[in-house]
Design goal:
Radius of gyration: 26 Å
Number of helices: 19
Number of strands: 28
Largest sheet: 6 strands, mixed
């Protein structure tokens, strides 16, 4: 093992005694940390608290402590960049497996899939000798305009909390730290470096913090990334309440807080308000009064100078150093971690399987899906997103995938000679083919006018047995992309016109949306089928074809609400989202997503938790019984169709009467079960007292009030099959 060899060599040649505790991996972690800390000079302590390149921080060569290397995720291992620049380093052996975006993972509603994801991406990070994987992201889906929603796990704090934990645990089994991001309240890209999030305590604790808390206390994440934005006037990367009080004191986090790249603004603030490792502070690595720009970082020589003058606490410094040492000993200094693997058949199969379980069938009139190749002569595929590679672009999660199967190729491979497959462009979107010097190799140029593109597609549509329209968004600025929010919820590039024109000559249309966000669908009643396919990485074409043609029975369900129009979303209905403002006032409070829709009695286009199968499921009567300090709710679910399928059984809790207003109901349990035709399984949910509490700002804590509650069990937030009442005394 390369890293193990490096440690052995270091221990033989460093200037410390051979009996050094910090080099002995059999010793308790804290003993090793304290021993190493006692041997470090002030300069060495400060040196390990900031970057030495775009993605690495220094070690302590004198003591044989190696540097730390980070890599962007969370969907794959980013290609190598130059030491001081974002441009690619030009390696030929740094291509990765691209896994589905985290919206797709959340849509699986499967902790098993989350574990498989973490295991697979963790093995790729380990193989590339990375110590810290910058992900996963668990910021709550607050507005459909957020350009970075595709990197997160949906609108519900309970779902995100459950899905993030297995990912973390499996990544870290590889000796690679997760760096859960972006902590906290990073819910838009507009003015992301400067907007001040104004959020009440109840919304903070009930909606925006639970997934981070689960990542720390249940997942055991070894690092956390601070966010760019401000919270109550302080930047999140050095925020006393978020970092010192909540994260480190209340939650007992013992890992390192890493700044987002360029998210640090002041030496004293960074020193005193919780930041441990500083990266990306406006430098090209060359220009500085100190001779090296990295020495000019806030936690570099400026910090050292203030420490020497006694202006800043050495006790606080030592706490930072301990945290970075823990991170180092758990990762770079860990000689017992597995070797990892890259682009293995197992990883490609994992990507395909996760994608297949996350794809959501939203509409399926007249059972147009799965497409029956025995009865289909001509398949017309329309849309740029059928041929566009989606692993390139989108910001820091852009990848250099070794392989990427686009939807059209996956369809042609699955169909073979069973039917004719015809392709038409339909619309002209983004011609961009490269990002950070990674080239897709696909020329998307087309000389036809918009009118001609539509006319050519319509001409092929009349005699098609089925039309598969591939649209949605892409990874360009202003769509699903870091750095800027969307300007509207409508489909770009006049896609609505293409769908309407096709529907006029042939109603047998399946619209496949490739996106990480909800989109408006004014044509929803004019098409028979709608599928949300997400950005699903290397195996996109194969996974989509698996579901379209029935090799895989769809089982994904939406992790966020699809509103009919933007104004049906809480942040927009309340005027709380303003892309021009540097203040983000969360006026909707706790009423995010389905909580808002149900409070206002707004019918969504597709509800949170919605997703169809090619089989049918019948729910029995929910029953509740006392169990210890809590309750158990059980329900029988039967597959009443003719094919095996998976159903996501969801439990929501309603508080019948409360001193503070609560949502109509809130997700508090889910279980994904597999059923053969005719098979029945009993699903049991455990309700712990803590699950029934709400946060009371007046008491600065969580409260459980006695009274009646109702457990609603069903197939979606708007599809409750059975309810049962229980009382807390």
């Amino acid at each position: 093992m390369v890293m193990a060899t490096g440690i052995a060599m270091a221990s033989a040649c460093c200037t410390c005694p051979e009996t050094a505790v910090y080099l002995d991996e059999s010793k308790p972690l804290e003993d090793r940390v304290e021993d190493a800390l006692s041997r470090m000079t002030l300069e060495e302590k400060v040196k390990i608290l900031h970057a030495q390149s775009k993605f690495s921080s220094a070690g302590v060569p004198r003591l044989g402590i190696p540097e730390l290397w980070c890599t962007d995720g969370p969907h794959g291992i980013r290609p190598e960049v130059k030491w001081d620049q974002w441009d690619q380093a030009g390696w030929t052996n740094d291509s990765c497996t691209a896994f589905p975006a985290l919206t797709c993972l959340a849509a699986t509603w499967s902790e098993e899939m989350s574990a498989l994801y973490g295991k697979s991406i963790g093995e790729e990070a380990r193989f590339r000798e990375k110590d810290v994987l910058l992900g996963p992201g668990v910021n709550i889906y607050r507005t459909p305009l957020n350009g970075r929603n595709f990197e997160y796990m949906g609108e519900d704090p309970y779902l995100a909390s459950k899905m993030v934990v297995p990912y973390i645990q499996e990544v870290q089994k590889n000796g690679v730290a997760t760096c859960v991001k972006h902590y906290a309240l990073n819910n838009q890209e507009a003015h992301r470096h400067s907007y001040n999030a104004v959020v009440d305590d109840r919304a903070l604790y009930e909606i925006y913090l639970p997934a981070f808390k689960a990542a720390v206390q249940e997942g055991g994440s070894w690092s956390i990334m601070g966010a760019y934005n401000l919270f109550r006037g302080e930047h999140a990367c050095h925020n006393d309440l978020l970092l010192n009080k909540i994260l480190k004191q209340d939650w007992g986090f013992d890992g390192a807080v890493i700044s987002d790249w360029g998210g640090t603004y002041d030496t004293v603030e960074a020193a005193n308000k919780g930041l441990d490792l500083e990266f990306g502070t406006g430098t090209n690595g060359l220009d500085s009064k100190y001779g090296n720009s990295y020495d000019a970082y806030h936690l570099a020589i400026p910090y050292q100078e203030k420490l020497r003058k006694g202006e800043l606490s050495e006790e606080v410094l030592n706490d930072k150093v301990r945290r970075v040492l823990r991170l180092n000993f758990r990762t770079a200094m860990n000689s017992r971690k597995p070797f990892g693997s890259m682009n293995s058949p197992e990883h490609n199969e994992a990507a395909r399987r996760i994608a297949g379980e996350g794809i959501v069938v939203l509409k399926n009139e007249d059972n147009i899906l799965p497409v029956d190749l025995e009865k289909t002569g001509k398949i017309l595929v329309v849309g740029e997103n059928a041929i566009k590679k989606m692993t390139v672009g989108g910001g820091s999660s852009s990848l250099k995938a070794k392989h990427e199967c686009v939807p059209l190729d996956g369809i042609r491979e699955a169909v073979g000679d069973k039917a004719e497959v015809v392709y038409q462009r339909g619309y002209l979107g983004d011609l961009l083919r490269s990002y950070n010097s990674v080239d897709t190799g696909i020329d998307l140029s087309d000389e036809r006018s918009d009118e001609q593109l539509i006319a050519d597609a319509v001409a092929e549509a009349a005699d098609a047995d089925v039309i598969l329209f591939f649209g949605g968004l892409n990874k360009s600025k202003g769509q699903d992309c870091e750095g800027r929010d969307r300007s509207a919820m409508a489909l770009p590039y006049a896609q609505d016109k293409v769908i309407e024109a096709l529907a006029e000559v042939n109603p047998n249309i399946v619209v496949v949306i490739v996106s990480g966000n909800a989109v408006e669908m004014p044509w929803v009643d004019k098409v028979d089928g709608i599928m949300e396919a997400w950005f699903i990485g290397s195996q996109a074409g194969h996974a989509i074809a698996d579901v379209l043609f029935g090799k895989v029975n769809p089982s994904g369900k939406l992790p966020f609400t699809f509103p009919v129009k933007l104004e049906d979303n809480a942040a927009h209905a309340t005027g709380a989202y303003d892309a021009e403002s540097h203040v983000a006032e969360y006026k909707e409070g706790i009423f995010v997503g389905y909580r808002w829709a149900e409070k206002q009695q707004i019918k969504p286009l597709f509800a949170f938790g919605h997703g169809l199968s090619y089989t049918t499921f019948e729910y029995g009567e929910a029953k509740c019984r006392k169990a210890g300090k809590g309750f158990k709710v059980s329900i029988d679910v039967t597959n009443t169709g003719d094919r095996e399928g998976k159903e996501i059984v969801q439990m929501y809790i309603e508080d019948v009467e409360s001193s503070l207003e609560r949502p109509v109901k809130e997700l508090k349990g889910f279980s994904k079960i597999s059923l053969a035709p005719g098979e029945t399984k009993t699903v049991t949910f455990v309700i712990e007292p803590d699950m029934l509490k709400f946060y009371d700002p007046a008491q600065s804590g969580w409260v459980l009030e006695p009274g009646d509650f109702v457990a609603h069990v069903g197939a979606a937030s708007d599809d409750i099959r059975s309810s049962v009442k229980f009382a807390v005394k």
